[in-house]
Structures
1.
Amino acid sequence: MSGSLHVTLKQQRQQHQQHQQQEKRQHHYESSYYLSTKSSVSKQSFSTFKTASHRLKTAVTTEKGQEVVKLSPLPKRAKRTYLAMDTDKEVIGYVIPVFRANHDVVRGLMETQEEVTEEGINYVAMRNLFVREAKEALQVKVEKKTRTTHIRESAERMELSRTMDEWAEFRKKMNPDSLTHPPEIIVKPRGQTVWEGKTVKLHCTVAGWPKPRIAWYKNNVLIDAKAHPEKYTVESNYNMHSLEIKNCDFLDTAQYSMSALNVKGESSSVATVVVKRFQEGDEPGPLDPKPHGFCPEHGVTFETTILDKFEVGFGREGETLSLGCTVIIYPTVKKYQPEVLWYRNSKPLKPSKWVHTHWSGERATLTLVHLNKEDEGMYTLRVNTKSGFDTYSAYVFVRDADLEVEGVPVAPLDVRCHDANKDYVVVTWKQPAVEGSSPILGYYIDRCEVGTHHWAQCNDTPVKYARFPVTGLVEGRSYIFRVRALNKSGVSHPSRVSEAVVAMDPSDRARLRAGPSAPWTGMIKFTEEDSTAGVVPGEPSDVVVTEATKSYVVLAWKPPVQRGHEGVMYYIEKCISGSDTWQRVNTGMPVKSPRFALFDLAEGKSYSFRVRCCNSAGVGEPSESTGEITVGDKLDLPSAPGNPVATRNTDTSVVVHWAASKEVTHLVGYYIECTIVGTDVWMPCNNKPVKQTRFVCHGLTTGANYVFRVKAVNAAGYSQSSSDSDAVVVKAAISIPGKPTGVTLLEAVKDYMVLGWTEPANNGGADIRGYFVDYRTVKGDVVGKWHEMNHQALTTTSYKAENLKENVFYQFQVRAMNMAGVSKGSLPSASLECKEWTLTVPGAPVGLHVLEVRDSSVVVLWEPPAFDGRSPVNGYYLDVKVASAGEEGWKAVHEKANKMKYMKVTGLKAGTSYVFRVRAQNLAGVGKTSAVLGPILAQTRPGTKEIYMDVDDDGVISMIFECSEMNEGSEFVWSKNYKAMTDTSRLTIVTEQGKSRAIFNSPSLEDLGTFSCVVTNTEGISSSYTLTEEGLKRLLDISHEHKFPVIPFKNEMAMELLEKGRVRFWTQMEKWTSDCQVEYVFNDVIINQGKKYSMNFDKSTGIIEMFMDSLEITDEGTFTFNLVDGKAKGTTSLVLIGDEFRELQRKSEFERAEWVRKQGPHFVEYLDFAVTQECDVLLKCKIGNVRPETEITWSKDCIEIAEDDEDAKKIERKDGDLTFNIGKISKSDAGIYEVFLKDERGRDRSTFNLTDAGYQAVMNELFRVIANSSTEIKVLSTEHGIVLYSMVTYYNEDLRVGWLHKDAKISASERVKSGVTGNQLWLKINEPTEKDKGKYSMDIFDGKDGVKRAFDLTGQAWEEAFEEFQRLKAAAIAERNRARVIGGLPDVVAIQEGKSLNLTGNVWGEPVPEVSWTKNDKDLLPDDHYTLKFEHGKFASITIAAVTTADSGKYALVVKNKYGTEAGEFTVSVYNPEDEENKGEKKD
């Protein structure tokens, strides 16, 4: 060892002898196998004297004068031999150097065998030598021994050596190796080729002793049959072994190998299984069209129907989300179940702690527990049958959890571990969609050792890159990791933890994944020594820099070829550019992994790196230098994506396309953000990055105007956001309709033809507004150009093409039109000649349609042709063919003409599509065929019900048809022989919700025929029932039996408990006579009136009673009433046994105790609550058997309410009713209320818990009263807009009120606001526009589902409200802008004669008003005496020079504009001082 002192050989030998003696005493050596298996035998071990080679100790003197023993370096080629033995000198452990299987596997293999094989013992666990001897160097002891002790220990050592030699000879004689042999495969598994959906079985026969253990592999991966019992079955009977692969699919094509293993060796064999498809091609994805194939195993073709499909889902982190579909497989085969698989983004999901799947046989359910953003994506349900597969997909969005601190970023996602080694792993993650109020500054990485709950932060400084090398792991331990994001506002929630990763050598991990292994053939050899022990390792190779950022640099290299079996560790050295000095980076402890991360390097500087290997023999030569590496980021931020384009998709989604980033390396994906026009709040559309350049953004508000932008992300961070897209309104996209079909000729004359066609199956999402007809001429094989026939759209599916030329052939095509545009032209009609029909045969029937589509039948209906020919139509012929067949496939459904305009076609094959056509016939012959109807799929709609006959208890005969898929406006329409019924005297129709009953008023032969019922506004739900003469006779017989039945019971025998715990058995008959007799029976024994039983039969009411005072154990059994009424008989019984009897007996005893309680003051009705119509909350109860001296006490929260308390005023007693009027409840009223009754006869108590659930129940009832008190929505127009309001009796602040417009929640804005004023709930629409028209509804929470009030603000209501708003607005404008005098003029002016008067008035008006002055209601004109001015449009002034008494009078300032006129009046009084004095003197 470095730093040790050199001593003489003599000193070394002395220390060597002392070390041997110390080992003899302490017995501290243990075998590696003994340590790994933790054997319970004594932990004592011995070392053989002959083969052991020990390191020499060196005694040195420290500075303190103490003598310390140190180990000398291990010499090359040194060998050690350890042997573990118990107290009886039995060998208990050894090490196998070549066979490196997992200890648990080896131990399991050994436990199955009876023999114990002893092998070589001199192998040393060299891989632990370096660490163990380092510990020995730290734990050396100083011990002085006498010569006597040394001699005694030497003798004991020699004795031990002799004993071991004798034991080895004995074991050689007893070695049972001659009886054992390695596995031998007698019959090898044979390769097979099978079809998809089949089951394949591989067989083999293996011999060997001890009995070999068999393992099966698929492409060298161990098959765990117990984990996948639905896929694999492994059997082992004696020496015959098999692997069964069930329901093979294309992914099962692989090489399957069988490995047989025992202690003597291993043998294996390989067989190839090839699975063929019914349709050749590439492996279909989950969204590809499904293949179909006949299943010869069951003799059917399975058809899959997926119903009740899950929609686009939205969840929040931490919540649980379930997806499910109903799957119907037809036909049903006993004990056969399909394979149900779930995928996320086309990758199969496996059950885990986060993912739970369930298949009930009909319902497939996927439950995502504790949602995280990693769970976001496209989810696909795939149902595999032996005839093919079917899929359904929908997207699931996961929103971020609520933030505890506003502005912090959301949690990162998708934390993964890569390149794991003995003490090193690389952790990667994806950046979140939302950075918070400021950009992300970096990330913190936390680790936790599996089995503990302590999280340790791996980095002190946040890292910017989305990957980080974590070092310092302990070999053999498992770790999980999580990541947190940091910005200026704080740290985010931690991400979902990664999968656990083990810190171990990658080669060991590969061996563990592959399972136990050994040489394919040959023997397991055990060696005594290793020729490479103690060899100094060579230099590593291929040292490269795998990652380089400004924060760290990661080195990787390959281990040396020459390293021995004890393992090597590494020292890393660096050299700054421009110098020749190499510095060791990890001076404290060498690393075990061929990876190393260097931190604290200077950014911008260049370094070179190299690696040295070391083991117990020393440190090897350095590797080649990496060359100069400059510290800095090697990965650039991606460039901004191209301009996004947003297009309409559905009412709540928009499709966004964009161009990919041009400059990007290692793209992680894209984030899409949106904002509503007029706001500056950007919201993420996806919380998990997507790599494609197209994304459907769901969950948008219908009718809102959105703008979108995109940003790219890689490990370096986010790109700049793209430019904003053009604004798009969220509403369903409308497309042009499909093509019309079946263009046929209905009638032809010399210069015109009548055409008919069928409307397109797809209207493009909008109503068909009309049709356009094109024509072209045909001459032989030459066709002309298409020309339009009509310039205005047709509203019918027929057209009279006029102004044609006689004897010219024409072809016609039809195009449909909706608001999106005009469709493509239909298929051209046949070449039609324009000439007057001289044929006497009728034209083609029209209006073909189908009803009652079933697996094997369908009813086809039609209308007569427009042209009857020379004579009326007297019959029809119906043809049918398989849709995929050619023209030669047409077959007549019947031979004789059918006079009806309908026919039921039977004998169809389920799952096959058919087309139909009809020909009309008259006396002259059969006419042309109609347009082809179809294809129609012969398949019964799931959930379809048929009309059935019913005879009720009164003998009333009726037909019943039920429909579970009623839509708004759906009605039941009954018909007879597929014609509307005009005679209502025969049937009475009664319809209740989804059930319609046709009651026969007086059944007779007149009612024979086919009755059908169609449910309108559905997808053709219909059924029919044919009433025959035989069926009618049978129904009449059943009706007669019902009219004269056995004695009917209105109520079967029942039991009830009476006061004092008495038991009453009773029944009531529905029909009886006075001759009816009753026999009472208990357990087949007739019982009579007596002390125990009392009976009563009230023939006026038909009630039969039997009473018992109490129930005893002997009363367990069956009680029966037997009735006889003439020839009619009736029996009713009640069985009281087991738990039911004991429960009844307990209740009887309770009722008796209740009776005792009621002898004193008691509660007739216990304390409960009620809410009045005025919304006051009352606590009430009803008491009974009280006296004046009975004490009645109320308490709240165990505190008695005294008479002088404020709450005592709320208590009221009226007769036997006690009430506590809480009034308008608030949270301060919560508590536990109790009422006590007490007097000399007894006491009773009642409690009401007005907290938690009790308080919520009261509030829910209060909400119900408030909600039901709300008036219908009324409309009020103001100068600012339109107000919708509803009045309630009382309003509570906890009441939830929501407003909706067109069934969409209204978001609050400056223009549209909702609120409460007093008891008025209102919605104010400021400055309304046409977009504000529509249906408004108000949802008031009533504790359950809510009360809805609606108002349709369209039509006259809108016009009146909008007109009134405009009127009020105009009036307000006029009031604000009308001309008026706003001040400046006095009411009265007194002025002395001779003085000048000047008055100025303030004027307002828009536009500026006209100003005039009047005196005594006469216009005043300016002159020398009167000066009138109007300045700045605001100030009007009048000046009267040298006023006289003549100027006294009533003046007015008159202002006028287009909005109105106003006058400011004032009075001028002119006086003469002398006259005033004279008047005063006269008075005196």
2.
Amino acid sequence: MEADAVSEGGAMAEERPPRLVDYFVIAGLPGSGAPIPEETWVPEPSGPLRPPRPAEPITDVAVIARALGEEVPQGYTCIQASVGGHPLELSAGLLSGTQPVICYRRGRDKPPLVELGVLYEGKERPKPGFQVLDTTPYSHSANLAPPGPGHPRTYLTYRRAAEGAGLHALGITDLCLVLPSKGEGTPHTYCRLPRNLNPGMWGPAVYLCYKVGLAKANTLVYEAELLGRYPEEDNETFPLPESVPVFCLPMGATIECWPAQTKYPVPVFSTFVLTGAAGNKVYGAALQFYEAFPRARLSERQSRALGLLSAVERGRALGGRAVRSRRAIAVLSRWPAFPAFRAFLTFLYRYSVSGPHRLPLEAHISHFIHNVPFPSPQRPRILVQMSPYDNLLLCQPVSSPLPLSGASFLQLLQNLGPELAITLLLAVLTEHKLLVHSLRPDLLTSVCEALVSMIFPLHWQCPYIPLCPLALADVLSAPVPFIVGIHSSYFDLHDPPSDVICVDLDTNTLFQTEEKKPLTPRTLPRRPYKVLLATLTALYQQLDQTYTGPEEEASLEFLLTDYEAVCGRRDRLEREVQGAFLRFMACLLKGYRDFLRPLTKAPSEGARDVDNLFFLQGFLKSRERSSHKLYSQLLHTQMFSQFIEECSFGSARHAALEFFDSCVDKVHPEQEKPEPTPLVELEELSGSELTVFITPPEEPPVPEGSEPTPQYCYDGFPELRAELFESPQEQTGALPVPGLSRSAPSSPAPRRTKQEMKVAQRMAQKAAAVPELWARCLLGHCYGLWFLCLPAYVRSAPSRVQALHTAYHVLRQMENHKVVLPDEVCYRVLMQLCSHYGQPVLSVRVMLEMRQAGIVPNTITYGYYNKAVLESKWPSGTPGGRLRWAKLRNIVLGAAQFRQPLKERWQQQQQQQQQQAAAQEAGSSQTEPCLERPSPSRPLQRQTTWAGRSLRDPASPKGRLLKSGSLGSAREAQPTVEAGVAHMMEALGVLESRASPVPWHDGSLSDLSLTGEELAAGGSPGDSGSALSTQSTEVVEGLSERVPKASGHQDESSTPRRGLGARLQQLLTPSRRRSSVSRIPPPELPPDLPPPAHRSPMDGLLHPRERPGSTASEILLSSCSLCRACDSLVYDEEIMAGWAPDDSNLNTTCPFCACPFVPLLSVQTVDSRPSAPSPKPAPAGASGSKDAPVPGGPGPVLSDRRLCLALDEPQLCNGHMGGASQRVEGGAWAYLSPLVLRKELESLVENEGSEVLALPELPAAHPIIFWNLLWYFQRLRLPSILPCLVLASCSGPPPPQAPSPWLVPDPASVQVRLLWDVLTPDPNSCPPLYVLWRVHSQIPQRVAWPGPVPASLSLDLLESVLRYVGLNEVHKAIGLLLETLGPPPTGLHLQRGIYREILFLTMAALGKDHMKIVNFDKRYKSAFNKLASSMGKEELRQRRAQMPTPKAIDCRKCFGALLEC
């Protein structure tokens, strides 16, 4: 049962957190029913067999003076020779010497000696706990030094084990003396005292060495077996390894004979790591203990071997002996939480030797496995109460980009020291054989894990066994490099192999042979080595002062108060040691990415070789000459080859490799001091003090009136009984086991790593302080949103190859206009899609564009690129035929370009004639009191009253040749020559349009394309009406409509070759005939229009639009939001400027009152699809108006500017004033910053997959994300399938016979319009001035003003404001408005500021085609400064007369002004 400290426990229980422990096992000898084998289990020797060691430890040491006639005491052994057999005499050569000799005695009558020392009297004091051996057994001085005034008196010191230490206490098992002058070295596994026993001038230096071990006799060793496990069934993703029992008891399951009164030793805790076939690690922790073993299960031979039977009298049992067997309990997990495992196993062992209890041991085991989760951000602290006296605290691991492991760099540094740690680093880098051994098995795993972790980002590829059982000791003879940890008692039987470097963690020594010595630290890069050594030395000194070992973690008050402070200090030192090694590795591999070789052609054999992926010689020449020997060995190791392959093709470690690249960029190898900022920047936790309490299992209920009676009592650890385990279903409040996700995970390509998110957040914070950078930052995130939706867009497109080229075109557009991207997701997504759809040539082009843009791809992007090139199918065959078609196409295009000047001259003549006719008609209509309805025979032509030329004049087409990358792509069908030429000329606008404008998607004629600025009739660059919607969404036309068009086009174009040649010659000849239709670019490629940052912000606001015949649905979007604090409308660019550079903050800042509020995105959907057989008649005020143009007619002409401006009203977009049957739906959702929206979109794609972005349920399931995406994509004129989802969602679920969920309605039937002002005005507020102008001018509007109009806002006021603006006296217009409105709070309150009122009024009266916002802003700024000198800036701000901030103006320039009011 789980009890939460806060009310969030219920929600947390639904998150399916991962378990802390997966399995519980028991290992040892078989149970009572199984026989004990007669033959003991002895592992095969992997080295020379040593003579047997004595079975008793050393309990006493003495010094005798032979010169004084002293004899060796009885039971003592005298050391008369050195290790090499040389005769040994201390103070030799001196006549007055006492000739001291060292003796020792073995036994078990007292605690053994555990440590020796040498004391120079007068220079130091004895260590605490040590006794000084100052006299001989015959009461003479035990001075080992020769007598004399120049020699300090030298004595031996010793420390004895505590009383009652028991049979298994570590003690000194052997002594020896070493003469370095004779070439003798310290024997393996021996500890050498640093003081010379002969400090005099005469005689050789003599050093004392001793060996610490566990002296045991009468022991039988067997291979451990699995005695029990829970759960019984294997987890599909994590099966229980078969070798677990051997690792739980690495020295074997033993049967031992002890003296009857011997106390049980303290259980021994050990850890181990198992590596799977895929490289994943399984962490284990075991607790070894002894239990009584029945003597009846032993045979006579086994009893005699254990010393239970007399060797003299056959069959007589000896008394005073006890038989014990060793057993182990262990847990396995995917998390290296070794302290928690130790506490849990210790609790179980204590539970088994105490009692009685009301709950069985199985209840605690199942409760811990099922109910204790691994800490997470939602559960940062978990307090497990196993019993009223046993507690366990789990804290969330520090979030670090480095991989999680069981390494302890503190123990590595404490047991080895700085110099030895660097020596081992060099040995690991050059792939030597390392054998780490210790008498403490729990130390081996943490140190070995640190050895393989300190070479990050390299990954050890050879055998790795942190705790090697004796059963696997033959790995020490393997001919490959390895890192193996083993118990030091192994060397009681075997000598180490000659080619292995042995590291003794107990004596801090390194043993190696002369022929297999690794390189010296002098071969390391000089300055990085100095920095590493200095840092480790400083931390080592600090470690000696602060490290106190494990704390008492049983106190509940300590766990809740001081635990974090103590562990925080330890964790800080751990990170600093790890950071020192990380900096050295970053300096060692500095600049390696410059020598990576990307794949640029079809792969061949050996494409994955490191020589083809990395320029080894170039990298070696860029290093210091003194380090060439090190680099030569490093570059040819397996781990470096694997590292280059992971960098080139990606791996599961891509996030860690990207973090290492960021570290490489931060370090400076030429410096002799480390960087001030740490490389490992820890993520700030949520700061939540939430602590989840896990209570003990519930005890069985007790009947009323009776006392609970314990019924479970154990004599040793019991055999597990399945009926006593609590199943997860029966436990209330239990956390469910993690299972498969309900949603399919998305591809990792669109995901940003934590490092990319950090960099993007940092860039956003820097850009927020610079107006221009902030606008570009938001724009870059908007393009990132589009590329996140690109997989769904490509999957939905009829031609996926063309959709990929569309994305490539968008990339080029971004690069041409210097869009600042916060990350490389845009390139990465496109590269992965090229790999998925078999377009390697396009991947190469994307990489080249990336390099030309000055972007160095990171590890993830580089990996996806190489995978796309390597795994994609490259085109086969020669492109000769396609090149000839390309040449023919260029000839036709060139001829068409020569024909354009004649065409332009003819158009100018026609324009002049029309202008003359329009001038004559205008002169004749000046005396008429009202306008006449234009005749249907007259074409629509606007009079050039405010500008020099008519906006309806067709622009001169400026085509250019673009060579695409589809020359090598294979086509399924090849059209005929005549059909191809006809199609080519028609697509270029040379032929008259006689068929469907949809181009073919087969053949090679699409390899070269002409992109021009020639638009459709009535279109404009700034148009966001139906023409924009049609161009941007025409890619996703339904397959059912695409096929008939293509077939019909082909049939029409199939003409005889001679007739086609004659027609081509006729068309290329200059003539007086005018082309009737202007063509737009193919729908697969977006029109090559200038981006919003380089076009006039006023383009298209009131520009006439192309009127489509009919639209099934119309979508109106507006981001204008009301600030409730000051009742002011805040517009889009002001909202953008007020956003914070935080991906979790939804608020913006009001520019008038500086109050934060959440802006809203207003949406109105008008569904014009008929719901009845006969449409309803239109209202009289709509189509019956005399001022409205006739649907389908030519519209107003000449000088009627009011009716010309009426064409720009939203109500006339479809050619009529309202639909026959319209269903209007509206709503408002939070308007999200691109930073926030991207975070939400990434979360949605990761949880539900990218397929959700093309499902009709998206608008209803995730409306905030959908409408914000639609807003940004339409704002930047990016193609998408989102508009089509509106109709699909309104039509209900698709029919069961629908062939694919990607078939959506025709995009041409959906019109998306972006409005600058609010969709629905507030009737209780004052009307805006531009609305009053349109009312006075009788211009039809989309929405009629619902409220009253103040008398002060008259037509005279509007005309006066316009007159002042026209005369460049904007300050007078501002003053007039302020005077008319009156001072607050008694005056009129306009929801729009003065700047916004004058701007909108000017555009409504003059037309945005005849004014520029940039010029207006300059005039308004000058007028504001002029008024500020007289009225004061503060008063103008209070009356909301200030202009937008520079950040808002830059946002408007970068995104472009919205298109409609």
